[in-house]
TrEMBL record:
GO terms for cellular component: plasma membrane
Transmembrane parts of this sequence: 23-46, 58-79, 91-109, 115-137, 149-169, 181-202, 223-244, 256-277, 289-307, 313-339, 351-369, 375-395
PROSITE patterns in the record: MFS
Protein name: MFS transporter
Organism: Yinghuangia soli
UniProt-listed Pfam families: MFS_1 (PF07690)
Domain Major facilitator superfamily (MFS) profile: 24-402
Subcellular localization, as worded in the UniProt entry: Cell membrane
Length: 402
């Protein structure tokens, strides 16, 4: 039995839902992940034009990622617990409404402070989605297909990095960054309609109180270790990745076209890494994380070594993408394996750690970029991801995927 099958919630039996509607619902949840993730990370591909248009530094523009990540991370355990009696379909449609309106406000906002405030509100919605999305997909298909449904939803990460963020960069080049967010507002509204139409009523399942959420890592040593690894890995990865465009513009004289190609290469690598990780995590979860982390460190070192050579940059970004895909899938499985009976609570803590560290990574990376140059941000990533690998290797074999 797989981990996902073991943790399949039973409040709404999948037998009551037709297979066609169930998989349409999974597709709608996957599309939701796509719009949430691309909205959160879109500024990464737009840092330079955002900073110029809003008359702020590149580091300050990176705070658009920070603001949304802080809200997503810090708010999720509370909101998930407070909404534990709310039907999950209604909750997801409300979250998508916040996203659609937030992107619209971002597109027309006259000043930078309003954009930051709006990004924080969207962050609350994004964090809750990460905590409930996979669980919802697992509940609307037959139990034997729960693992497949979870994998389909997580593929939205690769779709976002392969398609979403590069398209955002191209749209900015064609019509400006405001046009990009306006289009994403409309896309969010379309996904909202799809969710309302395709997903059946889903009463809350396995949600717990705020106190119980925060007691989990106190009682569960495996979960504590996993969360510490998530903190180090996400700080390092996103601290470096947030400033890929400025780094390439400064060191490889990269234009918009080359930056777009590099982001697509990274996304394709991530999709390949998800596939590779899917084959390895069930056999050796600990080894998958360590190998993926070492490959990520190697990719960052390679990027520093060949930063002025465009062919070398493409190779480094491809390796970085593959490594990220493996590590990402490994840490999610580690989180679920560490707390299989408290699914949403464990995912809310994972989301809190993950998104808060996206924010902190962007913030710290911005400080490095503004004061010691964008090359120092890559070194920051090397050190932090390396520490995550050392921690995982030091504690030995992690919880196995069942």
């Amino acid at each position: 039995m797989t981990l996902q099958e073991e943790t399949q919630p039973s409040t709404t039996p999948a037998e009551r839902i037709s297979p066609t509607r169930g998989w349409l619902g999974v597709a709608a949840i996957t599309a939701s992940l796509f719009v949430f993730l691309t909205t959160e990370l879109m500024p990464i591909g737009l840092l330079t034009p955002l900073s110029e248009s809003l008359d702020v530094s590149v580091g300050a523009a990176g705070l658009m990622v920070t603001a949304q990540g802080v809200a997503a991370g810090l708010g999720v355990p509370f909101i998930v617990a407070w909404t534990r009696r709310v039907d999950r379909r209604r909750l997801l449609t409300a979250l998508l409404a916040v996203l659609a309106v937030g992107n619209l406000v971002t597109a027309v906002a006259p000043n930078y402070p309003l954009i930051l405030g709006t990004r924080m509100l969207m962050g609350f919605a994004s964090g809750v989605f990460w905590a409930i999305g996979v669980s919802m997909a697992m509940r609307i298909v037959p139990e034997k297909h729960a693992n497949r449904a979870a994998a389909v939803v997580m593929s939205g990460i690769s779709i976002a990095t392969v398609v979403g963020i590069p398209i955002g960069t191209l749209l900015e080049d064609a019509g400006g960054w405001r046009t990009t967010f306006l289009i994403w507002s409309g896309l969010s509204a379309v996904v909202l309609v799809a969710v309302a139409a395709a997903i059946p009523s889903l009463p809350s399942s396995n949600a717990v109180s705020v106190r119980e959420v925060f007691e989990l890592p106190l009682r569960n040593s495996s979960l504590r270790i996993v969360l510490a690894m998530v903190v180090l890995f996400v700080l390092g990865h996103f601290g470096a990745y947030t400033f890929v465009r400025p780094y390439l513009e400064e060191n490889a004289s990269a234009g918009v076209g080359f930056v777009t190609v590099v982001l697509i290469v990274f996304g394709i690598g991530g999709a390949l890494g998800n596939f590779v990780g899917g084959q390895t995590v069930s056999r050796n979860l600990n080894g998958s994380f360590v190998a993926g982390g070492l490959a990520l460190v190697a990719a960052l070192v390679l990027l520093l070594a060949v930063g002025t050579n465009k062919a070398g940059v493409v190779a480094a970004m491809a390796l970085w993408g593959v490594a990220f895909g493996v590590v990402q899938l490994s840490q999610i499985n580690m989180t679920l394996a560490a707390a299989p009976e408290t699914f949403e609570a464990a995912m809310s803590l994972n989301t809190m750690a993950y998104n808060t560290c996206i924010a902190l990574g962007a913030l710290i990376g911005g400080l490095f970029a503004d004061h010691t140059g964008v090359g120092s941000v890559v070194w920051f990533g090397i050190v932090l991801v390396g520490l995550a690998v050392v921690l995982r290797a030091a504690v030995g074999r992690g919880p196995a995927v069942k």
